[in-house]
Amino acid sequence: MKILVNNKETELTQGNTLADVARQLELPAQGVAIALNNRMIPRAQWAEQTVKDGDSLVIIKAACGG
Prior knowledge:
InterPro entries: Beta-grasp_dom_sf, Mopterin_synth/thiamin_S_b, Thi_S, ThiS/MoaD-like. By secondary structure, this protein is mainly β. Helices cover 11% and strands 33% of the residues.
């Protein structure tokens, strides 16, 4: 299945939930937010939220600084 991750086409090889995508992309356990088709999905819902072919994800990583 092909999805867009931050406007870059990505092949999802295993699973079909946001939690599966986060594992495949090796995202950190904290400090990450994901929007699916321009809708923010709370982390508590990642395991239930399915991702379909052609969906668009925006991954936002928290950054420290001043």
